[in-house]
Amino acid sequence: SQTIHQWPATLVQPVGSPLSLECTVEGTSNPNLYWYRQAAGRGLQLLFYSVGIGQISSEVPQNLSASRPQDRQFILSSKKLLLSDSGFYLCAWSRRTDYGYTFGSGTRLTVV
Amino acid sequence: QKEVEQNSGPLSVPEGAIASLNCTYSDRGSQSFFWYRQYSGKSPELIMSIYSNGDKEDGRFTAQLNKASQYVSLLIRDSQPSDSATYLCAVTPRGTNAGKSTFGDGTTLTVKP
Predict the structure, then answer these.
(1) Which residues on chain B are in Cβ contact (under 8 Å) with A103?
(2) DSSP per-residue string spanning A41-109
């Protein structure tokens, strides 16, 4: 069976500090991978989408970046966090573009 | 106009009743439609997928799709307190943006014992 791991679960970071969130998928190959952010009480905003190693589609022009160094690994990064980067970050995978997603457990980021 | 709109809620129903959740979308070329359940503080969980007009039933859940009206709904029969959660509607387009789901803001459902 397929599983998705995302860590850390919670993070409190000062403004201007760097960020690295990691997500890995097990039990499948060549998954479509996603990073979404959810603001409090709101829906999900797509940040990055990847169909393969090194193939990243950026949906939001902010101070965030993503990388896919291995087939089943997806990393979200920032060099300098802003207060507005606070939120619930969710990694997800799907087998095909017309399939629904399986989400990781999420990272709750608070920038102070 | 938002791309995916849901009833603002919150929605409250008594235990055993039918809960009806609605969603409209703006992209007529959308091909895939999903409902996710999200418990407070947790990540969303896929509960229903629907791709063609009509009804799709899975246990107590029924998803309904009407592409002409650009409308998706979720019915929960015999609602249970454990169904209390926020329900997110998601729509995926065709073409170059295939695979990139757009989510509504969600409808919070409370089932009262």
Answers:
(1) 43-45
(2) TS-EEEEEEEEETTEEEE-S-SSEEEEEEETTEEEEEESS--GGG-EEEEEEEESSTTS--EE---EEE
A36-52: per-residue pLDDT in tens?
Answer: 999 887 789 999 999 99
User: Min CA distance, A56 vs chain B (Å)?
Assistant: 13
φ and ψ at B97, to 5 degrees?
-100, 10
Residue with tokens 């409902």: B35
**A97 to B99: CB separation less than 8 angstroms, yes or no:** yes
| N- to C-terminal Cα separation, chain A | 38
Cβ(B43)–Cβ(A103) under 8 Å? Answer: yes
Q: Do B46 and A44 touch (CB under 8 A)?
A: no
Query: Chain A: residue nearest B10 by CA?
Result: A41
Q: Which helix (H) or strand (E) holds B22?
A: strand B19-25
* CB-based contact B99 A100, cutoff 8 Å: no
Cβ atoms within 10 A of the Cβ of B10, count?
Answer: 11
Q: Tell me how many degrees the CA angle A4-A100-A5 measures, rounded to the nearest 5.
A: 5
A100 touches chain B (CB under 8 A): yes
Contacts of A108 (CB under 8 A, 6+ apart): A9, A10, A11, A87, A88, A89
- Per-residue pLDDT of A81-107, as tens digits, reads 999 999 999 999 999 988 999 999 999
Q: Locate A79 and state its tokens.
A: 């060099």
Q: Which tokens sit at A20? A: 């690295």
